[in-house]
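Marked as duplicate of an earlier ticket. Keeping the data here for the record.
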Amino acid sequence: MTLAAVIVPLLGGCGSGHGTPDTGDGTAPATAPHADPTTVTEEPSDWEPDPARLPTGHDDALALARAVSAQPHDYGPGYLPQDPYEADPATMAVLGQDCVWTREPLPGEVLANLTRNSELPAGSTESGPLRVMSSVTVHDSVAAADLRMAGILEEVLRCPGQQLRADERVTGLLSMGDPGGTDSPLRADDLIREGGEFTSDLYGGPYPYLWVVTRRGPVTVALAVKGTEGYDEAAVERIVTDAQELMLARVESALR
């Protein structure tokens, strides 16, 4: 596997309407997200959040995060909630100095965080279960959200290998930043991509892993796909791109 094959496609040429992932054998399972065309919005330069609609407390920020966050059916037919489906919204994922992800109480600049885990169970084909994580974080300011994006870029330099869960790891991570989102088809104020190889004690590996974080105003949207047998880098990239498009459109609609 080449990490460039995971990361580079998101730099351009990957607009909406990608269809479904290619399994590599000529078939195309209907697993790719499908954005609602009614949520398509104008170009980024024409959009600014309405100050009157920006959340100011935890409750309205959490309501916004719930409205934005992807649900299983957003990824396509057959996706189900993974156990656990939602993490405690009073916490958020933090990468420790030991390169292990844990959940800690929300810092002061974060009004709300909502993390959801979905899964496409293994079917009758050779493909294994595909797991997708979405995380929406509402900050108290654009500056705070921008600072968080800068911190993410530093994390992969510190931890090119990371422990996701007790039985899940990613290695060989490479990170690419795109301030302003100028090199991506995704309508975002800022964008970061991390690609590497995912290994699970239960399902083996290594498989393609891709994590993309975008910012729209004070809201950051993260989407990670843990690859599995039967899904190549292109399939993983399509799932991430289409789900990000959908959630970013929801941010724009909620805050316009």
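See parent ticket for discussion. The chain is about 25% helix and 35% strand.
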